[in-house]
Design a protein that fits this description.
Blueprint (H helix, E strand, L loop, with lengths): L1 H46 L5 E4 L3 E4 L4 E5 L5 E5 L20 E6 L2 H4 L9 H9 L4 E5 L7 H13 L6 E5 L4 H8 E4 L2 E4 L3 H20 L1 H14 L10 H8 L13 H6 L1 H20 L3 E6 L3 H5 L6 H13 L2 E4 L1 H5 L7 H8 L9 H20 L1
Parallel strand pairs: 5-6, 5-7, 7-10, 10-11
Antiparallel strand pairs: 1-2, 3-4, 8-9
Amino acid sequence: MQNKLKKVLFWNFYLIILTFFFLFLDFVITKTFFSNFYKTNKNKVEKQDQYWRVKNKIYHHDFLPNINVIEDNGKFGKYNFITNSMGFKDKVNRNISYKKKDYRIVFIGDSFTEGLFLPYNKTFVGIIDEKLSSKNIEILNASVSSYSPLIYFKKIEFLIENGFEFDELIVFIDISDIEDEAIVYKLDNFKVIKIKDKKKIQRKKNTRNYIDFLKKNFYISYSFLNFIHDKTIPTLNKSKITEEEFINFIISDKHTRDKWTINKEIRNKYEIGIANSLKYMKLLNDLCKKYNIKISIAVYPWISQIYYEDLDSLQVSIWQTFSNKNKIKFYNFFPDFINNQKNLNKIDYIKKVTIPFDTHFNEKGNRIIGENFVKRYIEFETQ
């Protein structure tokens, strides 16, 4: 019995010594060979933080004005990101007067309307700008990723109260806005803030600190643990799956952000988001009426809505009803995607109109919205 105990103690002691020796060796190797590698990669990450996306005290976040950079989005490619003096995404750096000369239309929406991963001229707002420029219409894009109806309202209110003049506002409401209004943003003392889960934030902070400590001091151990994590915990690693597998994940109920229009159980969780979206769009509509600014609403599908042919989508019916009630123009781009799949396999069609391994529209998808918007806009104006 004593011999067995001695053996157990010996092997435990041996493993402890071996572990400390390995960690010491790892530490020496990391500091000798990987120190510069860590700093270089850390700097790369910091450079990718996109300094031109900044906090705003009133409406949460915005772009810096007069930016002209080549934005590198890894596998999504590089593109020229430009803003004008107002901090709006644009084709060139230029000064935008608060006082309008020609008829001025402002577009606002989230990342889809910003035209994420695309230069201005390939986004649907840029395409609309090009098509309507001959009619002496000035087009401006106030959209930024992760905007929602609360931010649409607060940003437009801010612009108007500071003397910015425009004739018409086109609001492109995204399907994900409902989730944002339910669990991401709230109004606090007339300012937009994020709904914070302090415990969750602290857990994330602790995890980041732990990972940084490992990378900085024990890079071999970090690499080994990271390898074990990837092998044992299933994650959506875009570098290890096909584009078809990515799309299948997005259209599954595991991806909930866009499923409230399709899945009743998910929709029930977002009822408050629907109510808040309607509330802030009503405030935005009233604000525009007060200043004699025309307002229109536009909607478009996500990948899931295209795949499941969600033509009579709640996203459509909610905002069409709102538009009819408030006597404003409504643009519905669901049929332009869903009815034009022709004889293509649904997955193949989705691949044709979206950026690979992403939910946003590519140049072709943006062109579908841009060209059809111009046709309907002209039709509306001639009625």
